[in-house]
Amino acid sequence: MIVLTSCKWILLAPFAFLSFLLIGAEETCEAGGVCGSIEGQRICETRVSHCRPSSSSLYRNGGTAQAYKTDSPEKENVCEPAKYSATSYKTASWAFRRTSSKPAPTLKVKAHVWSCQDDIEASNCCCELMEDPFKVEVWQTRPDGSYASLQKRKDDGDCRATILSNGTFFGFETVAPGSTGILGGLGPSGRDYMPYGPPVIHFLISSDNHRLTLLDVPLLIDRHSLNYSYFNWPDLRGSAWVRGKVIDEAYQISEWKPETKSNQVIVELNIFLPKRDSFVEDASLCQADITGLPISFFLEPIAECTPSVLDFFEL
Ligand SMILES: *[C@@H]1O[C@H](CO)[C@@H](O)[C@H](O)[C@H]1NC(C)=O
Ligand SMILES: *[C@@H]1O[C@H](CO)[C@@H](O)[C@H](O)[C@H]1NC(C)=O
């Protein structure tokens, strides 16, 4: 069994190396628009053009849905903070080293959701606070950088949650995610190898009149000050994780309040959802014609698009 386990990761290695060919790194902040400043921190301010998505692809915002699993339970916490108090918190601020400490800080996240009109005539941004009901699926790595299983009925609800909202905002509590490496946080027994990337929380937001929106929000946190921190150097893991040319930044961190005494951070986000436009088909999770190529393997949800992989790999 042990031999089989290591064999299958060797089988995956060519994908990992092929993905190097697809690197197109660019710093998030510059890719998203101008850099602003809140309490001395650099944040990305969205450009007015985010009203008009540059592409209809679900992956237009540079996120990955590789570790997405449907039917996560409806709950208010994503990772139960108490469950991870003894788990190492492993993050990387550059590609070749992950540092470890514990416990990971607790995050209290609140997001305001804006409905953005895709109006060709508009010269300025036409976003209004959302009034329609919407569903948010949130998933992330545990603090040690591993994802809970993709198998049905295994680790259900572990660092995954579905949140329903009648409009305007949603909120949840969780622990800070860890960084994943070349195995995308899905390695056997939580193993992963460099190059690493910044830790992220993934959001998939659906609402009747809006485009299905996938977002990866990087949340690298300075261990001592709990300040927001930026990943140095490009992310070398491949196209799926590298935020290439993101023209229309779909979120903004509007507030970042570190509370070092209680080891927690209060985070507020603005999320911009483009209205659905009758000319553009809604993006789907599985888009590749040939599954299993690096370009789709690291982007598209394995549990949805290539479930046969789950019979072969213990993901
Ligand atoms: C953390 O942020 C605060 C407020 O912006 C700032 O005063 C402080 O110097 C920062 N600490 C570090 C270690 O960067
Ligand atoms: C949404 O509104 C309905 C009816 O007003 C209410 O019963 C329900 O609890 C609300 N749900 C949320 C998540 O606010």
Task: Write a concise keyword list for the protein shown above.
about 325 residues; mainly beta; Protocatechuate 3,4-Dioxygenase, subunit A; five-stranded mixed beta sheet; four-stranded antiparallel beta sheet; 5 helices; 15 strands; globular; disordered N terminus; binds 2-acetamido-2-deoxy-beta-D-glucopyranose
Write up what this structure looks like.
The protein is mostly beta strands and 315 residues long. The chain has a single domain, classed as Protocatechuate 3,4-Dioxygenase, subunit A (Sandwich), CATH 2.60.130. It has five helices and 15 strands. A hairpin with a 6-residue loop joins β12 and β13. The protein is globular and about 50 Å long. The site of one 2-acetamido-2-deoxy-beta-D-glucopyranose (NAG) has 3 residues, from β8. One 2-acetamido-2-deoxy-beta-D-glucopyranose (NAG) is lined by residues 39-41, 225, 227.
SSE topology sketch:
Layout: H1 2-20, H2 28-32, E1 35-38, E2 41-44, E3 89-94, E4 97-101, E5 106-116, E6 127-129, E7 134-140, E8 160-165, E9 169-175, E10 200-207, E11 210-218, E12 220-221, E13 228-229, E14 251-259, E15 264-274, H3 294-297, H4 302-305, H5 308-312
Parallel strand pairs: 5-15
Antiparallel strand pairs: 1-2, 3-4, 5-6, 5-9, 7-8, 7-10, 10-11, 12-13, 14-15
This protein binds 2-acetamido-2-deoxy-beta-D-glucopyranose (2 copies).
The site of one 2-acetamido-2-deoxy-beta-D-glucopyranose has 3 residues, from strand 8.
